[in-house]
């Protein structure tokens, strides 16, 4: 994914997101971004069911990168990682968003 403010790489798409939302660019409007596209072969990369997960997603650079950077984490639905997990009642979370106002050097 490319940061629309300064056109540098800001992250990566999962194969499913790239196939179902190919117009996710700086030029698209927010409401247009959420119009998922459907097509032949997409289910193999989105794994909506275990049967649809036919092995194509397993061999993508995205899955290899997730597994390398986050060992044990599920890279996609029906992956063999540890999954989401649970936390005890009363657990508090802190979410921090990084929204730079200028291009990093």
TrEMBL record:
Highest taxon of source: Eukaryota
Record-linked InterPro entries: Osmotin/thaumatin-like_sf (IPR037176)
SUPFAM superfamilies, A to Z: Osmotin, thaumatin-like protein (SSF49870)
The protein, known as: Uncharacterized protein
């Amino acid at each position: 994914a490319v940061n629309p403010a300064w056109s540098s790489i800001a992250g990566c798409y999962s194969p499913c997101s790239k196939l179902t939302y190919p117009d996710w660019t700086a030029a698209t409007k927010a409401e247009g971004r959420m119009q998922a596209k459907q097509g032949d072969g997409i289910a193999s990369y989105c794994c909506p069911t275990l049967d649809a997960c036919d092995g194509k997603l397993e061999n993508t650079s995205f899955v290899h990168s997730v597994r390398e950077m986050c060992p044990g984490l599920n890279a996609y639905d029906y992956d063999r990682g540890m999954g989401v997990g649970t936390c005890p009642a009363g657990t508090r979370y802190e979410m921090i968003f990084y929204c730079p106002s200028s291009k990093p050097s």
